[in-house]
Amino acid sequence: MAAGLNSLFPRPRSITSLDGDDVPAGVVAVETPDASLPPQGYVLRVADGEVRLAYADDAGRRYGRATLAQLAAGGEALPAVEITDWPDLPDRGFMLDVSRDRVPTRETLTRILDLLEAARYTQLQLYTEHTFAYAGHEEVWADASPLTPDDVRWLDASCAARGIELVPNQNVFGHMERWLAHDTYADRAESPGGYTLAGSVRKPAVLEPTADNAAFALGLLEELLPNFSSRRVNIGADETFELGLGRSRDRVAAEGRGAVYVEYVQRILGPLVERGYEVQYWADVLAHHPEYAAALGGVPIVWLYDSPSAIERALDLPAATKERMAAFDASPEQQLGGFATRGAAVIAAGIPFWVAPGTGTWQSIVGRLDNARENILDAATTALAHGGTGFLLTQWGDHGMVEPPPVAFAPLLYGGAVAWCSAANADLDLATTTAELAFGDATHRTGDALVRLGTLGTDLGMPALNATLLFASLFPGRSGMVTTDGLTADAVERVLGTIDAQLASLDLATPQGPDADLVLAELQHAARLARFGARVLLADVGGGALPSVAELDDLLVTQRELWLARSRPGGLSDSLAKFGPLREKLAAG
After folding, report:
1. pLDDT digit string (tens) for 32-61?
2. pLDDT of residue 3
3. Average pLDDT, stretch 165-191?
4. I need a surface site. Which of 65, 110, 165, 261 has the fewest CB within 10 A?
5. Rounded to the nearest 5°, which phi and psi values hold at 529?
6. DSSP letter for each residue of 339-357
C-alpha cells in the first residue's frame, strides 16, 4: 500500500487498490451526491485519469475532500484507489472542562478546534459550572475570567465553519460548589452547612431539589442558550451524592432517592424538551435506579473513565480505600465490566444513549494514555454493539487542571478516530499520528514522549483509579483512588530513568507551527513536574531526601508562565494554591 494511504487519518474502513496508472495530483474531483450512502459517508475513487467523490451529505463531502487532500499532500501523483468510509457513531463529541480553574483563551480553543476537525468530531461542549458571565451573578464568576456571550457566539461560529456543533453544557443540580459558597446562594443548598460522607466533611455542592431551584436553573439556561445555534443542551445532574443527606432527607426516606432525583431533573428537562431541545444528562444515577431509565426522557450519557484492565488491577487496592470509593460510586467492584455494565440500565431500556470515556489527563500530570486508549475503545465498541448513538470524550480538570493542554492531544486524536471507525483505528500508531498531526514534528520525539510518559502511572506497578501516584505525590492529604502500599524504591527509580530519557529526547525534538516552542516547553515542564513527584515518592519509600521548597517554587514560576500562555488568568491562583500542602510537607522535611 502506498505511503500516503498508510498515513490517512482517521484510517478509512475500506481501502481497495485499483489496477491502472496513478492520477496527477492536480486533477479536480467530480463530486456527486449519493443518497444510498450512510449518513456522513463517502466513496472516493481515483482511477482512469479522474477523481470521483460520491457523498451522502455535506459532512460526507467534507470528509471525502479531507481524505483527498491527505492523498495529495505530498504533491505527487494520486494512487489508483477506492476508499469507502462512514462513521460507526453519528455523533462524536469532545467535552472540555472549563470550570476547574483553567479557562482557555480563544487561541487555545482555536488550536483544539483544528484538531477536532481533523479527527472528525461533530460536537464540542464546554463543561460549565460558574465560568459563564451570567448577568446579575457577578460575585460567582468575578475572579474566574469567564466566557462571555460574545466569546460563545464567536466560538459557535468558529465551530460551525468546521462542521462542528457547539452544544451548551451547564450543570444544574450537583457540582454547584462555586455558587453555594456565596451567601447569596447558600440557602439553595441541600446541606447549607456541608455534609459528611465516607468519614469526611464536604462543602455544599448539590441544590435542594425544589421547584424554586429548578426555576433558578432554568433561568440560567434562558440566558445561556440563545448564544448557541445548537438545539441540544447538556444539563449535567451527575454525582448528587448529598441528595437525601440534608433538607430532602425526609422526602428521600418516604419516596426514594431515585424518585426525588427524577422529579427535579424533569422540572428542568420537560420545559426544554417542550421548546424543541434535545436534553442530555449524565447517567450515573440511573445505574442505581434503572426503573427510571425509560421514563426520564432525554439522552443519558454513560460515563466511565477507567479501563477494564485498570479496574481489574484496582481490586487490589486496600479495603479501606475501596470502602471510601464505594461511597462515591467509584469502587472497582462497582465498575467491573466496563461500559457494558455501567450502561446496563439504559441498554436494557432500549433508549438512545451516549458513552463518555476520558482523556485520562486529569490528576496525572503527563496523562494515563495506556488507560485512555483502552477506556476509549471500550466506550466506542460498547456503543456500537448496543445501539448507542453518540460518543463524548471528556477532558476533566479535577484539582486545578495542572496538566498543560497538549497532554490531551494524543487521546483527543485517538478518540475521534475510534469513534469514527473502531475496527480500522483501534491499533492506531498514536505516537506518529500525534507528532505529525498535532505537532508537525518530523522527529516524532514529541509523540513518542507523550506515549511513553503516558504509561508512567502503570509503570509504578501500583493499582490506581482516576489518578496516578505521581499526581497524588504532589498533593499530599488529598484522598484518592491510589495507594503506596507495596511501592518500592526500585520501581520509582525506573520511572525516574524513563522521565530523564524522555527529557533528553525532547531536547532533540523539532515541532513546527506557531506554538512549536510553547508545545515543547509544556511537554518538558509536565515531565519535570512528574519527575518532582517521583522524587517525593522516592523519599516517601526511604529512597532519598525530599526535594526542596525552592525547587518547587521554580517549577511553579514556570507553571504560571505556561498557564498564561494558553489560559485566562482567572483560576490560576486557585490552581497554584493547591500546591500548599506539598510546600508544607517539603518545609517540614
Report:
1. 999 999 999 999 999 999 999 999 999 999
2. 55
3. 98
4. 110
5. -65, -45
6. HHHHTHHHHHHT---EEE-
Given a cut of 70, is residue 554 above it in pLDDT? yes
Please state the φ and ψ torsions of residue 447, each to the nearest 5 degrees. Answer: -65, -40
Under CATH, to which class is 91-358+369-398+414-421 assigned? alpha beta
Sheet of strand 232-234, all strands in order from the earlier edge strand to the far edge:
165-167, 123-127, 91-97, 390-395, 354-356, 299-303, 278-282, 232-234
> What are the grid coordinates assigned to 431, written together?
505516537
Mean pLDDT across 353-367: 98
Q: Is the pTM of this model over 0.85?
A: yes
Dihedral angle sign, alpha carbons of residues 47, 48, 50, 55: negative
Look up the CATH architecture of domain 3-85: 2-Layer Sandwich (3.30)
pLDDT for 2 beyond 60: no
Give the Cα separation of 375 and 356 in Å (integer). 9
Render pLDDT for 497-551 as a digit per residue (tens, 0 to 9). 999 999 999 999 999 999 999 999 999 999 999 999 999 999 999 998 999 999 9
Chain centroid, CA 114 distance in Å = 16
Query: For residue 12, which amino acid is it?
Result: P
Pairing of strands 278-282, 165-167: unpaired
310 neighbors 481 (Cβ within 8 angstroms) = no
Residues 545, 561: Cα–Cα separation, whole Å: 28
Residue type, 521: A
DSSP H helices in 73-202: 106-118, 138-141, 149-160, 177-180, 183-186
- What does the block give as the cell for 516? 512549536
Q: What value does the mean pLDDT take over residues 552-573?
A: 98
Centroid of chain to Cα 187: 32
Cell of 150: 460574545
Minimum mean pLDDT range among 18-27, 129-138, 340-349: 18-27
Helix ranges (H only) for 47-92 are 58-72
Tell me how many degrees the CA angle 409-414-415 measures, rounded to the nearest 5: 100
Peptide bond into 10 cis (omega under 30): yes
Helix (H, G, I), strand (E, B) or coil at 504: helix
Using DSSP's 3-state secondary structure scheme, residue 15 falls into strand
Nearest to 91 by CA among 306, 331, 388: 388
Calpha distance 78→146 (Å, rounded): 47
Residue with cell 436553573: 217
Among 468, 531, 525, residue whose Cα is nearest residue 494:
531
